[in-house]
Amino acid sequence: MPFACLFVPDFPVQAVVRLDPELAGKPVAVFAGAPPLTKVFSVSPLARKLGVAAGLTKLQAESFTGITWRWRSLPQEATARAALLDCAWTISPRVEDISKSGDDALPDTVALDGVVLDIGGCEKLFGSAEKIARDLLRVAAEVGFAANVAVAANPSAAICAAQGFAGVTVIPLGEEAMRIGELSLAALRAPAELLETLERWGIRSCRDFAALPEIAVIERLGQDGRRWQQLARGADPRPLIAKEFPLEFEECMELDSPVESLEPLLFVLNRLLDQLCTRIRMHLLAIAEMKVTLELQPPDMRQKGELRHIRTLRLPIPAKESKFLLKLLQLDLQAHPPTSEVVAVRILAIPTTARSRQLGLFLPLSPEPERLEVTLARIQNTVGEGRVGAPVLLDTHRPNAFEQNRFVVKDAAEQKLAHARTAIATAALRIYRPPLPATVDLHDGKPARLACSGVQRQIFAFAGPWRTKGDWWSETAWARDEWDVELRALQPRPRAAASIAFDANIIDSAGDATAQTETALYRIYKDLRSKRWFVEGIYD
Amino acid sequence: MNYVELHARSAFSFLEGASLPEDLVGRAKELEYPAIALLDRDGVYGSPRFHMAAKAAGLRAHVGAEISVEGFGNRASRPSWMPGTSAPRPVRLALLVENRAGYRNLCRLITRYKLRETEKGAGTATLSEVAEFAEGLICLTGGEEGALAAALSRGGYAEARENCEKLIALFGAKNVYVELQRHFDPAEEHRNQAAVRIAESLRLPLLATNGVRYAQENDREILDVFTCLRHHCKLDSAGVLLERNDERHLRSPQEMVRLFTDLPRAVYNTNELSTRLEFSLADLGYEFPRYPIPPGETMDSFLRKRTEEGFRERYAPKDDEALYERARCQIDRELALIEKLQLAGYFLIVWDIIRFCREQRILVQGRGSAANSAVCYSLGITAVDPVEMELLFERFLSEERGEWPDIDLDLPSGDQREKAIQYVYQRYGQLGAAMTANVITYRTRSAAQEVGKVLGFGSETLQQLSHLVNSGQWRGPADALENQIERAGFDLTHHRVKKFWDLCERIQDLPRHLGQHSGGMVVCQGQLDSVVPLEPATMPGRVVVQWDKEDCADLGIVKVDLLGLGMMAALEDCLELIPRHYGVPVDLAQLPADDPPVYETLRRADTIGMFQVESRAQMASLPRNAPRKFYDLVVQVAIIRPGPIIGKMMNPYMRRRQGKEPVSYAHPSLEPILKRTLGVPLFQEQLLRMAMVAANFTGGEAEDLRRAMGFKRSEQRMKEIEVKLRRGMAEKGIAPETQEEIILQITSFARYGFPESHAASFALIAYASAFLKQHYLAAFTAALLNNQPMGFYSAATIVKDAQRHGLRVKPIDVLRSEWLCTLEHPSAPAPTAAKDSADASPNAAPVLRIGFRFARGLRESSADALLGQRRLRPFAGIPDLVRRVPELLKPELATLSEIGALNVLSSGIHRRTALWQVERAVRMAGPLLDAIPDDAEISPLQQMTHEERLVADYRGSSMTTGPHPMSFCRAALAKLRVKSAIELTGLPNGQYARVAGCVIARQRPGTAKGFVFLSLEDETGIANIIINPDLYEENRATINCEKFLRVDGILQNQDGVTSIKAARILPVAITAAKTESHDYH
């Protein structure tokens, strides 16, 4: 049963080059790592000839002329890997993904990027093993890869040969030991400890290793040693671990006539979702993510190619109810409507295991997750994307530093803690986002008058400055002096209390009259780096 | 209004402060403070330097410390729901010393809880301990780490008030100050408001401080870096552990007054409190222990008697009446001064240590300026006769100096020295004697490593950086850290890289942690813990003081240095090996004086392994100086020092010695002083005498001059003394140009020169080592190897040198080797159960057997188990060895196989066979198969080639006893016209020559203006290479990284010294063996 290995040397470079055909035949190198620790991650053969090697720092690498530099792209590598699998699946349904590289791969470790496929029985469809190998090479070239292909009697021998020999290699049955024997021990990718022992023994090639008496090897290196020796003999009996087809569910529909408004589209979506949910439920699964692709009618009919409107919904809780999913889709499409008429709809669902939760008899009722999601989606539709969530304080002295997490309902214990927290709060500061630029007159180094958005106020009392400075080691360094000041309100209080951006122009005459008499506490600050003043917020 | 900062921390709070005490004082001086207090964390580590700096700057230095205390709860911390919360830590009390009793109590309190803890840097005092030692101390309520802040955050006003009452109960109402700090932090201000209310209600005084942690604002960056190092995190993730702002610097009094406009009393009180603090470190209350003497004696009379005894023993055999008389006068003079200065106890204590060492047969010799004293010579402390050598007593002891004499004792490194140290502990008790500390500071490499780590540089990058850091003494423009960072491929314009460079420069010399000095011990009459806090050392059974030896010396605490000297240990080993293997007794005191073959060898610069004369520079000067008698050796030891080299004394002396230049004197009055060194001052004593003779300096004044030049930042002091020198010389009528010459001579090397007495002590050891190497090469080489690491060369070089001198060296052998290197006699059989070691046939020349200690990775316990089994019966084969010595791990067995140590276990096996068999033997088949006899299996593996054997030898034992790697390719090299080291000596000066060899040493001395010196070893000897700075920069990577080099250049062959001035340097592929080189030490 022959196996073929399709191996892509310098995969990170090739993953970039295949999408940028102009780079083909040029010396290219790929950087990875955040500055200033950027290093060369992978190089093309031509670049290697010019002396560039993985591990060089960016500065060192840039001293080489005539090299084209690109950044490593993990999404591109992922697509490239999927493309590689597609190549293999064109020949055989039994394909193993042997890729080992990832985000954490070190620049100087050789990534193993390729696939092995079982081509037993494929001869009848595609011809001889050599033809299959050449076909694979051709298909790989079509998707932009310069690969090596090797065919051997077992997967391991095929992998070794594809890595060790360039181009197409077909090892006739029974000659595995001879051909693999030509390779150095490094091609085995054996553990360092074993390689060290073999090096001490003076064993340097697979042939030398293969020649050792098997029982003696077992006595010394155990069964593991035997396995590596079998590999060196090209006789590793390991089976192919076939990759399953990706478990995704897809439904699509071509529309008879283009649909312009959302209302009729929802009918179509509803049907598709019903189908999908039925299939999902049959597998006792639920939907974790949905990708809706709307094929659009190009506004100009002469324009070639497809126009698509794609929306992806990652669901916070696995769902299998089409009604709920439809509502979410509706809200999303209301916020992001397609720009043109829809001619086809495709929904791709990524499944996951269904949610199961036992509710407590004595626990307070929390909002139903599905309804909460719909509510959050509604709010987001109103206030804008990225503006809904639960704030979380960051571990820094930087004022106003927080990040926004997804809003989740806390359990009873957490709620109790949150309650305790509010009990100790003494004042609330409503923050203007962004802060309001201001001008502050100082008297004896202390704030005396404040002018903000056309309104001038005398400062009656102040406390401060409260000084913070940080991140001095990076470009995001900050330094500021904060003051708490009391002055006549900049705008009428009742309506200004909302945390909507302050605009002095909206102050009406009645409000202004109130502001004449009422004082308020504000937080103002001076950015010590830009030397500019701002009003940051108002105390309740 | 004046302001005194009474709560400042220095970098001696180890990663919790960011400025040196000197920098704090410097800044305080700039700000016109009248006084300043230093309160380091759990100790008074920085106080001596703070005191000395303040004394020089004319400020008052108050002493105090921050003490971790249980009983006040944990420090205030952020609420648990906020990010950046840290583990609970006990409150710190800020204590100021009011008087000597307070200082004594503070030291005892710290010692008490420090000695209780097993972990270094830990420790917390209990409330009862604080109560016990509270007298004389003033307590501040502290800043954010203090008791008040802790109580406020925990229980509010009521608990805070309660804590203050607790403090009043401990220290008394007059001795508690409510501390206020203002760093523009609202939470702190909130605390301040409460503190003011509490102070009013309890009638406690307020005290403004700034809780200083660094001198200048931008030092906050260093403190942030230190904080990350302390918490093992990076700056990016440290969050609120870092400083909130940069306000904890020393503020001007005006600024403090402005900050506390609402509370002027708080600032005023700083002055008031400062005047109350009467204690300073000048009033330490240290007393050297009295030596226990028999009834009816005084220490002086007892010392006189011991000296008399020794005097007769030393001088009577010399049979020189004039010398005897001179010595008697000298001793009387010395004893009178010792009596006057009440130093008899000190001499007796050192004599007591010497007596202990003699009884225990531990080789010991005093050195340093003690060798100037005839009393020390008579007491057996030193071995050099100062009267015969006309050494200057004032260099050792002077009435005017008012400081303790300094006696250093050289002992064999290792266990013997430890015995002497333990004796001192036993004799004076745990609280009466302690080791001095050694402050570990940041150097270029450690700074780069640690700063890089906190800035988030990866380990690979850090390795790359530290690899490039040149640790040679010479620092050229290309060696600046800035260039090294660029060479590592980093963009210096990048903000983070720029910060990295800046911080690396700034944290250099800041203390990292406290270590233990290798041999400095302090002892005290009564309790040492009332003079300085004591801490447990990492080494069990040892106690260390919080000050280093310079601090102790500055504060007048007597120390005795018990220094471990590798060569003393080697000499001691020789004393045991020589009688056993050569059949002749050896007494180092009775070695034949001025042995001609020894001096012949020295003149040839054939000195590898010899004490003090083996370095490259020594070898280059030995043929020129051509020593013929002991005094020449004394000069030789002293001349290769930075002082004589910088002062350009070395060449005039050598030319005069070779008769190429007439002997002349700057002034006729200097002739008696400089006659012995041909008119060139080479020793410290000479310059002291020059000052005394030419400028009428007293002995004490002359010593002051030496110290002034050795003292950091003492330009002012030096100028004053220089004026005095000129005035003295003018009074003597010395012409101005002669004055200049004399001043130049004095100033150029006073700081770096050797005292003659010290050189003489070293010369004695150097002569002994040369004598033993000349006459007992096998024993000497074994002793050197057994005490590695020591000296200038690696074990591989020592072995190759010994082989070139005809010694047979045998490799490690599992049937013959011991843990240490041993001597064997060719006819002796392998040691068996009956006979352990080959000490028979002393008539045959012994051969050297390398010991197991050189088998890389082999543990001593495994070797001991092996030796134990071998004594029972020899091993029958590898399986037998593996079965009987289960302690041997597989890697250890593999190393032994690889270096050929197991080849002897059955006939006809080679190293690979051994490896093959070991791999099987270590996989135990289980008891079922135990009965099956082991078959002598022949391996299918190829025998190692020459090259593979070399690689295995160097990998497994860092040396080879076989042919030198260069010998394998000599024929090929000869075709390239590469000469051997020995051939170079026969070539004419100025000829273009080519040489190749293994790099065994790289040097870049600070005195050589960037020139680099390489030593290339081949099978015939060592070739010396001189590389100019430009060529070095062009070939930096090749020179520093390649193990074998080929050098082309002009041969310099003058006065018996051969070297090549390199014009071209190329790497040469000789072997893949990992040879070692001694670089840029």
Uncertain segments of chain B of ≥5 residues (pLDDT<50)?
832-842
Supply the number of helical segments of chain B.
43
How far apart are the termini of chain A?
79 Å
The tally of beta strands of chain B, per DSSP, is 23
* Main pleated sheet of chain A: 6 strands, antiparallel, barrel
Largest interface: A-B, 43 and 54 residues
Based on CA atoms alone, the radius of gyration of chain A comes out at 33 Å
Kindly estimate the percentage of residues of chain B that lie in beta strands according to DSSP: 5-15%
Number of domains of chain A: 4
In short:
Chain A is built from 17 helices and 20 strands. Chain A is of the alpha+beta class. The longest helix of chain A is centred in the middle third of the chain and has 21 residues, at 262-282.
Written description of the protein model:
The complex is a heterodimer of chains A (540) and B (1081). Chain A is an alpha+beta fold and 540 residues long. Chain A folds into 4 domains: 3-27 and 62-232, no CATH class; 249-358, 2-Layer Sandwich (Dna Ligase, domain 1); 375-422, no CATH class; 429-539, no CATH class. Helices cover 33% and strands 29% of the residues of chain A. Chain A has helices at residues 11-17, 45-49, 58-61, 74-89, 123-126, 129-142, 155-164, 176-181, 192-200, 206-211, 214-232, 262-282, 322-335, 369-383, 412-424, 493-496, 509-517; strands spanning 3-7, 28-32, 39-43, 68-71, 95-97, 114-118, 148-152, 168-170, 249-259, 285-296, 307-319, 342-353, 390-393, 402-405, 429-443, 446-452, 455-470, 478-488, 519-527, 532-539. In chain A, the strands form 5 sheets. A 6-stranded antiparallel β-barrel of chain A has the order 15-16-17-18-19-20. Chain A has a 5-stranded mixed sheet with strand order 5-6-1-7-8, sandwiched between helices. The radius of gyration of chain A is 33 Å and the shape is extended. Chain A starts with a strand and ends with a strand. In chain B, a hairpin with a 2-residue loop joins strand 21 and strand 22. Chain B is globular, with a radius of gyration of 33 Å. In chain B, the strands form 4 sheets. Chain B has a 7-stranded mixed sheet with strand order 1-2-3-4-5-6-7. By secondary structure, chain B is α/β, with parallel strands linked by helices. The chains are: A alpha+beta (540), B alpha/beta (1081). Chains A and B meet through helix 3, helix 11 and strand 17 of A and helix 7, helix 8, helix 19 and helix 38 of B.
